[in-house]
Automatic annotation (TrEMBL):
Keywords of this entry: Membrane, Transmembrane, Transmembrane helix
Protein name: DoxX family protein
Superkingdom assignment: Bacteria
Subcellular localization, as worded in the UniProt entry: Membrane
ATP-binding recorded as keyword: no
Membrane topology (UniProt): Multi-pass membrane protein
Lineage: Bacteria, Bacillati, Actinomycetota, Actinomycetes, Streptosporangiales
């Protein structure tokens, strides 16, 4: 179970680290040009950067604290943060009637829920 949780956490860290970093450094107009990123048109450039920054923080929080053995409670909290971001993303994509984006968000939400459950529960780093 621990290995599966690590694989899920690293997967989420890679996806949200890369995606979040892109939202922080790539101009909003360039992001909007991607096929599944039309949602950025509904948000200010600052909001897109904030979302990206939260995604980067979650990515770091999923793997760094357990690797260094300090603040390990942040790993499941980061997974909860991803769940919250995905709930918001699902709401945005539902309003925009984008079922493919919703499906992707549900996958990320499920993986993050698995990590949160596992790291708060049976495979906790905290004891």
């Amino acid at each position: 179970m621990d290995l599966a949780l690590w694989i899920a956490a690293v997967f989420l860290a890679l996806v949200f680290g890369a995606g979040g970093a892109a939202k922080v450094v790539v101009p909003k107009e360039k992001i909007a040009a991607f096929k599944f990123a039309g949602w950025v048109e509904d948000w200010s450039a600052a909001s897109v950067r904030i979302i990206g920054g939260l995604e980067v923080l979650a990515a770091v929080g999923l793997v760094l604290p357990p690797l260094v053995g300090i603040g390990t409670v942040f790993a499941p909290l980061a997974a909860v943060g991803i769940i919250l971001v995905m709930v918001g993303a699902i709401a945005v994509h539902a309003r925009r009637r984008e079922p493919l984006n919703i499906a992707g968000n549900l996958v990320y939400l499920a993986v993050a829920a698995f990590v949160a459950w596992g790291r708060f529960g049976p495979e906790s780093f905290m004891g």
